[in-house]
Amino acid sequence: LAKTTQPISMDSYEGQEVNITCSHNNIATNDYITWYQQFPSQGPRFIIQGYKTKVTNEVASLFIPADRKSSTLSLPRVSLSDTAVYYCLVAFTGGGNKLTFGTGTQLKVEL
Amino acid sequence: NAGVTQTPKFQVLKTGQSMTLQCAQDMNHNSMYWYRQDPGMGLRLIYYSASEGTTDKGEVPNGYNVSRLNKREFSLRLESAAPSQTSVYFCASSAGDGPYEQYFGPGTRLTVT
């Protein structure tokens, strides 16, 4: 079971790029890396998923080095509305019972 | 499409009482999940159902039972509620079992006194 470690909190200002790193030292060959965002009193929402190298979508990029022991979620030009908790998750097909969200990273964006 | 719906939104129970949390999804997803979230603890998986007719324990199953009634519905039952079960409960669904995008319901805030 791949355990993930993230910083507890980060602070940023509007317009800056934010990079949140997740450590998953014992990631397995079949594991994928997924990031979720959660606002207060809401369920988490999917942001991005990847297996290796780099993945980009309309809201974020995910960087995964060759050894896959860590991953970095990059949020370009954050705004106040990006203030939320961000979770890193590793999972493999057929491993639904191993899903663990961890404690996440509280991102606070200020003016 | 409503996505994932949960009932009730709020519930207060006395120790020893029982209740069932209901969850339904209209996205024709195969897999469904129940999580609990305590302050500062992130989400912990209670039970999940990889497909209709199957259920399996997650990280914290003690004190809970589940039923995958059909493809749409997945219920969570507390037979004898305890104060330690005070939490926010989230139901989620996904197309497949594992690294698939999960869609979450709005949550049920449960207090056990």
Can you tell me about this structure?
The complex is a heterodimer of chains A (111) and B (113). By secondary structure, chain A is an all-beta fold. In chain A, 0% of the residues lie in helices and 47% in strands. Chain A has a single domain (9-110), classed as Immunoglobulin-like, CATH 2.60.40.10. Chain A has a five-stranded mixed beta sheet with strand order 1-9-8-3-4, with no helix packed on it. A four-stranded antiparallel beta sheet of chain A has the order 2-7-6-5, with no helix packed on it. In chain A, a hairpin with a 6-residue loop joins strand 3 and strand 4. The N and C termini of chain A lie far apart (39 Å). In chain B, the strands form two sheets. In chain B, strands 2, 4, 5, 6, 9, 10 and 11 form a seven-stranded mixed beta sheet that branches. A four-stranded antiparallel beta sheet of chain B has the order 1-3-8-7, with no helix packed on it. The model of chain B has no long low-confidence stretch (mean pLDDT 94). Chain B has strands at 4-7, 10-13, 19-25, 31-37, 43-49, 56-57, 64-68, 74-78, 87-94, 103-104, 108-112. Chains A and B meet through strand 3 and strand 4 of A and strand 4, strand 5, strand 6 and strand 10 of B.
